[in-house]
Structure of Protein phosphatase 4 regulatory subunit 3B:
Amino acid sequence: MCDVCFVGFSKSLFIPFSGSLLLESKINPNTAYQKQQDTLIVWSEAENYDLALSFQEKAGCDEIWEKICQVQGKDPSVEVTQDLIESEEEHIEEMPETSPLIDLPTCELNKLEEIADLVTSVLSSPIRREKLALALENEGYIKKLLQLFQVCENLENTEGLHHLYEIIRGILFLNKATLFEVMFSDECIMDVVGCLEYDPSLAQPKRHREFLTKTAKFKEVIPITDSELRQKIHQTYRVQYIQDIILPTPSVFEENFLSTLTSFIFFNKVEIVSMLQEDEKFLSEVFAQLTDEATDDDKRCELVNFFKEFCAFSQTLQPQNRDAFFKTLAKLGILPALEIVMGMDDLQVRSAATDIFSYLVEFSPSMVREFVMQEAQQSDDDILLINVVIEQMICDTDPELGGAVQLMGLLRTLIDPENMLATANKTEKSEFLNFFYNHCMHVLTAPLLANTSEDKCEKDAVVGSTKSNTICPDNYQTAQLLALILELLTFCVEHHTYHIKNYIMNKDLLRRVLVLMNSKHTFLALCALRFMRRIIGLKDEFYNRYITKGNLFEPVINALLDNGTRYNLLNSAVIELFEFIRVEDIKSLIAHIVENFYNALESIEYVQTFKGLKTKYEQEKDRQSQKLNSVPSILRSNRFRRDARALEEDEEMWFNEDEEEEGEAVVPPVEKSKQEDDFPDSYEKFMETKKAKESEDKENLPKRTSAGGFKFTFSHSASAANGANGANSKSVAAQTSPASSNGSSSKSTALSPAVPAPKGSLVGLVDYPDDEDDDEEEETSPRKRPRLGS
C-alpha cells in the first residue's frame, strides 16, 4: 500500500518506510485519467509515456480518484475523466477503412520533427497505425527517409539524426510485416541499424554497424552455394540483433508492438532449416568432416556449433516437420558422430555436443535406445554412447556440476519406462533395461562404490576422523556427484523393480550407500536416507529381509543419535522413515527395530513413533502367543529340517522362488523365532574360524552417547553383515547388564544371547559355508518367524 500526497496541483507518491519521493506528477486539467478494476488508475504523459498507479485496497484508490476528479471538476462516479477526448478517439477508430490515408509530410530535413510527431502520435490507435503503414508502403517513404539519414550523417546533423531514431523506432512499432520486408532488405537494413544508433537518451551514438560488418564474422563450416540461403541467414542474424541488442526491452504498454518482428524471425528460421534439410549433399559433407579423424579441433568445434544452432532452429518447426528433420539427422549418422565428439577433451565441443544430444533425447528417446542396443553388439562397454555420457557426467569439471545435472536428466529420460514402447513382437522396456544393467550400471555406480569402499574408509579413518569406522569424502564436488548418482538410483528403485533389486542385493549396494550417512554434507546424508526410504516404501519382503539380515538400520540410527537434539531436516527425515514403518505396520521391520534398537531409542519422547513401534511389536507378539497356544504340543516340539545345499543356485532363482512356503502351516512362527536364538552360536564359531584376522574389527559394542542414548558401531564389511541379524540383535539386550560394557576382545563372548533357548527347541542345524546367507535367510524369514524375543 502506498501513500499519495497532494501539494497544490501536484501529487507525489512516497514509499512509506523510506519517505523518499518516487513519483511527482502534475494533474493536468486536460489529461485523461482512467480508473480500472477498482484498484488501478492509468494515464499518459508527454508523447508516449504511460503511467499506472496500483492500490492494494479499493478505498485508497477511491480516495485518490476523488481528488483527481476534484482538480478536473469531474464527478467521481465516472471512470474516465475526459469523455470528449475518448469520444473523439472512438470516432477515429470507427472510421471506415475506405477513408483517405494519412497525409504524410514531404520527406525533407526541415520536416523530420513533424514526421516524428506523426509517427509517435498514431501508436495508441490501431486504425491509425494501419493507415500510416499503408501510406508508408504506398509512397516508398522508408527509402526516402533512409536517404535523408545519409544526408544527416554526412552533415553531422545531430538533431535530425535524433528525429530519425524516433521515426524508425516508431515504424518498427507499427508491427507490419510488409514494412519489415522493405526495412530488412539487403539494400536498407544497415541504414536502419544506423538510424537506431542515434538514441537521444545516449551521450554518444552506438556503433552497431561496425560490430555487424567487422566484428561479427559469418563462418561457413561447409561453403554454402545457394545465394538465397546465404542471404536469409545474414538477414535473420541482423534482425535478431536488432530485436535483442538495439531495441530496448518493451514496456508493458509496448509488449505487443513487436510481435510481428518475432514472427518474422521465426519464419526465417523455419525457412533456413527447410532449405538446409533439403540439401542432402551439404549435410552429408558436414557429417563426413565431423567424424573424420583428420579434421582439426578448431574445424570440428565449428561443425559441432553449427549443428547445435541447426538443432536450435529446428525447434521452430511444426511437429511433423521436426520429426522429418531428426529422422534425417539420424539417417546421416548424428549419434555415432556425437559419440566421438562427446569424448573429446575440448570443453566447448563437449558442451555443444551435450546440447545436441539433449535435443535428440527429448525428440525420441526410443531412437537413442535403439542405437545404443545395436551398438552394444559390436563395441566394447567403454565406448558405448550411454557410457560415454555417464563418464562425462562423472568427470564434469564445473564446481557446480552444471553439465552433470543436464546429463543426469537425459539419462533419467532414457531409463524411464514411462516413455518405452511395448509392441506385440518387441518389448523395449525389458530389452533396454537388461542392456543397461549389464553394460552401463557398473559405470554409473563406480564413483559411489569407490568412495564407500572399505579400504578407503579405513584410510580416511587413519587420517583422524572422529566418525566410527566409515567415512565418506568431504570434497564438496564429489559429494554433489554422489548425490546425483543417488538421485538416479532412487529413480531406478521407484521404476525398475526386478533389475534394480538384483543389482542392490548382488552388490550389497544399500550398505555402501548408508556409509554416506556419515558425510558432513547433510544433503548427501539425506540422499542416502531417501534411497533407503524408497526401498522401504515398496514394502517388498525381499528388501525387508535384506535390510534386517544386514542390520542396515544401524547407520540410520547412529545418524539420528549423532544429530542429538537438533531439530532439522535430517532429524525429521529419519523420524518419518520410522513413522512410515509404524503406520504401514511392516511387521518384520518393526520386530527387528524393537528387538535391536529400542533401548537406544526409547528416550526419544518428543514424538510417539518409537513407543508406537513398541506397542505394535507387543500386539503382534500377543497374537503369535495366542496362536501358539492353539497348536497341539506335539507340533511345538518338532521342526522340519532343510538341507541348506538344496537352496537356490543363483540370485535370480532366489528372487523368484519362495522355498519356505512348505511347512508354514505346520510350524508355528513363534517356535521358529525361538530356534533363531540357537543359530548365532554355530554361526559365530564358523565366522571366528574363517575371519580370525578380522576379530579386532568386529567389536560392535554399542557406546553410550553424551545424551545418554546408545551409539552402535556400523560394520561396513558384507561378511559381518551376514551375521548381524543373529549376533547384533543380542548386543542391545546385553547393554542392560553392567558386566557387558567391560569390553572383550572376542565378539562371541560380548554378544552372547540374552535369552536362553527353550528346552523344547532343537539345535541340529547344519551350516554350510557356501550357503550361509541362505541358512540365515531361512531362519529370519519375516513372514514365518518374526523376531519376538521375550
